[in-house]
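Design request, tokens follow.
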């Protein structure tokens, strides 16, 4: 791969990579309804929830709020995955785990798939150590 090429697994269309790419992709996956449900579980204030309801880019706003509050970081997304589990949002949980594995942990999609086939390979129980 040349120096000017972008790796589609670790970068998004805007050129971000790693955790930045994860946040962009996560924001695109989040709907208003999902954000409001997760924000309620994570005990966001009524003002934060009202702000999300009025935002044109609710997913990106919510991701930013989760990062500021420490619910997601480069090394840990456990508060988010715990909230998704509590809500029974298994499909979103799987997608979040996959995005984090690919963009932050730099695991290829093939390796990521094989991890999900193994017991106890859930990212919600793992952290990245730098």
């Amino acid at each position: 791969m040349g120096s000017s090429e972008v790796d589609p697994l670790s970068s998004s269309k805007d050129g971000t990579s790693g955790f930045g790419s994860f946040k962009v992709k996560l924001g695109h996956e989040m709907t208003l309804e999902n954000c409001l449900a997760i924000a309620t579980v994570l005990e966001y204030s009524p003002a934060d929830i009202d702000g999300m309801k009025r935002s044109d880019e609710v997913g990106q706003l919510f991701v930013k709020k989760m990062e500021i509050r420490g619910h997601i970081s480069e090394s840990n997304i456990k508060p988010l995955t715990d909230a998704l589990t509590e809500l029974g949002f298994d499909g979103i949980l799987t997608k979040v785990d996959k995005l984090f594995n690919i963009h932050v942990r730099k695991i290829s999609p093939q390796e990521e798939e094989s991890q999900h086939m193994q017991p106890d390979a859930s990212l919600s129980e793992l952290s990245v150590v730098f």
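Comment from the thread starter after seeing the answer: thanks! Residues 10 and 16 are 8 Å apart (CA to CA).
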